[in-house]
Amino acid sequence: MSQGTVETCGPEACVPSYIAEETLPYPFCPGCGHTKIASMIDEGLRALALPPERVVVVTDIGCVGLTDRHFSTNAFHGLHGRSITYASGIKLADPDLKVIVVMGDGGTGIGGAHLLAAARRNIGLTVIVANNFNYGMTGGQHSATTPPGAITSTTLLGNLEMPLDLMGTLKPARPGFLARTSVFAGDAVELVTRAVASDGFSLIDIWDLCVAYFAGQNTLTRDSIEQMMADLEMPAGIHHEGTRPEYARAWRDLYLPEEVADEEGMCLLPPDKGLEPVAQSQLTGRTSILIAGSAGQKIRSVATLLGAGAIMSGLLATQKDDYPITVRTGHSAAEIILSPEPITYTGVGTPDIVLILSEDGLAHVKKKLPEYPPATRIYAEEGLGELDTRAQMIRLPLLAKAKEVHRLAVGAVGLGAILAREGLYPPRLSWPPPAACRRPRWPRPTPPGWSRAWSWGSGVAARDVRWRLGRAPVLARATTVRVVG
Ligand SMILES: Cc1ncc(C[n+]2csc(CCOP(=O)(O)OP(=O)(O)O)c2C)c(N)n1
Ligand code: SF4
Ligand SMILES: [Mg+2]
Fold this sequence. Notes:
By secondary structure, this protein is an alpha/beta fold. The protein has two domains: 244 residues, Rossmann fold, CATH 3.40.50; 192 residues, Pyruvate-ferredoxin oxidoreductase, PFOR, domain III (Pyruvate-ferredoxin Oxidoreductase, domain 3, 3-Layer(aba) Sandwich). It is 28% helix and 18% strand. It has a seven-stranded mixed beta sheet, with helices on both faces. It has a six-stranded mixed beta sheet with strand order 13-14-12-15-16-17. A two-stranded antiparallel sheet has the order 1-2. The protein is elongated and about 85 Å long. The two termini are 47 Å apart. The site of magnesium ion (MG) has 9 residues, from helix 3 and strand 7.
């Protein structure tokens, strides 16, 4: 769209209108306040002489949502109440853009939570609310800002609700700029200009006229709007000016600092290559493993190490974790499937291998134990007593051995034992954790306790206990759910 030919001449230069002439006239009813608001935005942009290609006008739904097509800037029009979300995405992608949201009072209700989030973040959007107290486009239903007593098509005997006070609601979030005005006010253009110039989140609540539905039934005029502001204790003027850093830039500075980002904020870190196969597993078919223990026993980390080692030996692996919502209590379990073939179904009916580490883990699998066939191998902490099952039992002093390092290393002991006895893949692949299992920007030290516990586990199974275990803290953190197929 070409920039319009109407020009304003300021003291230094003439800035052409941002309204594309060929799109006029506006589609609004004659006398609709939206026409004035479109002109105010144009005047604000001209006052700031912003390059049109650096401006994005994002509109919400409603009559006011027809505004963007008239601007010779970039534009985006989406779903009702979601304009803030689109605009936030645009701003995050390019923090140097001037992003202006034009929305109705309908959008402030339907997308109210997005407004709160944007203001709390202080993301650099300018929100122009064309507040005509009703849903104009759909026939004048009452909205979140309809004043009490007002007659609309859905409040025929008068509105019983209190209106949303945008200033009072957003002020505690301390955004960049908050102001209220009306389409009649002499300072409206100046306030719109200041809102657009604001670096952080800015919002201007412009009390507006829907001549087709609201203004007539409620005798809304310039004077009555002023009276309404007084009655509702919602005065015009600037309600807040803040200095918090703008979110989109602050986010980049914190999470993508210069050393890891180029000038456009694109991450320069090499892409994560994932886990590269370095060995060949001899496994010929799908094998499923169930690890059952207690919350806090690092069950998910152990399962991730098991799967990571498998992937590094050319297998495919899936992991499904199961734990109560109250994460620090009760059982923690993980189902792992290893396979040379693609894993199209990730469910585990009867596991081939079971590792039971604690009473919580036992309680979790107890009902299923009698159903396990003799082919299933159960590795169990020896203190758990007799188990009602036909499966093969391999009892090991897992906990006693782990305690020589740290009681939470019990999973690492069990992992080492399973790998040494089951021949799933070369045990050395599961320890130390491969780089792809560690967080790139917050590396944790390799936990010495785990290394020893794992070695003991694989050693005991190979009848070769070589380690004198010293006490060391368990610090291991691995990635959470990893489904690779
Ligand atoms: C999620 C959703 N709900 C309802 C609608 C129907 N709808 C279309 S326009 C509109 C009212 C818009 O009112 P407002 O935002 O105040 O703008 P105005 O028409 O008054 O300018 C509604 C409810 C919709 N499009 N999407
Ligand atoms: S219906 Fe109301 S809001 Fe829509 S264009 Fe007409 S006057 Fe404006
Ligand atoms: Mg409206």
